[in-house]
Amino acid sequence: MARLVMKFGGTSVADLDRIRNVARHVKREVDAGHDVAVVVSAMAGVTNQLVAWCREAAVLHDAREYDAVVATGEQVTAGLLAIVLEGMGVNARSWQGWQLPLLTDNAHGGARIVEVNGAELIRRFKELGQVAVIAGFQGLHKETNRVTTLGRGGSDTSAVALAAAIQAERCDIYTDVDGVYTTDPRVVPRARRLEKIAYEEMLELASLGAKVMQVRSVELGMLHNVPILVRSSFEKPEDIDPKKPPAGTLICDESEIMEQQTVTGIAFSKDEAQISIRRVQDKPGVAAAIFGPLADANINVDMIVQNVSADGLTTDLTFTVPSSDYERARATIEKAKSAIGFERIDGATDVAKVSVIGIGMRSHAGVAAKAFKALSERNINIRAITTSEIKFSVLIDAAYSELAVRTLHSLYGLDK
Ligand code: ASP
Ligand code: MG
Description:
By secondary structure, this protein is α/β, with parallel strands linked by helices.
């Protein structure tokens, strides 16, 4: 008998039929003798609608009231699922964030979890055999007694935090895909589902545009060593053999992955823009003069490449920002021109970042060199390169991103 957290995203609870399907999944685990806490998202599209209403009400609105509005989506689903479970003869009750409580800081709209109290849930597992149905995404700021939300996609984070709080054996993330793939199967039909992936690799994949889970939920899983299973909610509950290990991708500690491949996956993102500052003065304080104002403007800078200058006077500096921030970033630099000192700004928005990820890179040399050769053979020009311990990224023309991803996917033996 195990204690499980089961989390269901928006498409998995999109209507009452889907909620009944979720209830059957829950009943399946209860019948197998497990203690179950369920975390639900709002029904598909509901949060978007709530956000839109807030904007319509007032473009600049109080973030505390925004949270009061957007937190409601999850409350509806939690109540409905509890009703359906009761109807199926499963003892269940719903919980809102403040009732547990799940305490957060007061960064409304993107609050961070401070503490989750799972004691009452555990008591009810033991004494009543009661399933807990918890509204994801929402919490409480204790000092001000206000409802908070954890940022878009935040119910993943609620689920993992709860799993840590009740010492669950596993946190199952039920979603509309059946696991984590070596790359996007829509781009590479031969992409494979991974059986296991290390937290660190998943963090890189998640923050690089593989939109399976909220990044913070993976961070939290790593911190508390919660095994997270990404699995499909579209699998029929009656088709699942309780004696077999469940199908999906397990996000776990790297020590639990026996056969480590050098490369685990390839991520890519087209939402990148490149900014190159030409003939920047080469003297102390210049990087600060550039990136300080960008940080103040809340612009997230990703790749940064600077050359060692030949003449000791000026150099070129290239970096990337999200394409939605491109114009703002250019304007910010332009405004700081006299403080920075440069000749001109060049830029491009039709660029893409392709990243190769694998903890095996720590112990293998030449992994990136292989890629550079393969890309050059396809005549793909590399604009910038960055590397870290377990990944490297190249910035290329967006038109070549699919070709690059496919090329690298085959190169590292990831094809099915
Ligand atoms: N409903 C929220 C959102 O759409 C939270 C979540 O689904 O994880 O962002
Ligand atoms: Mg989600």
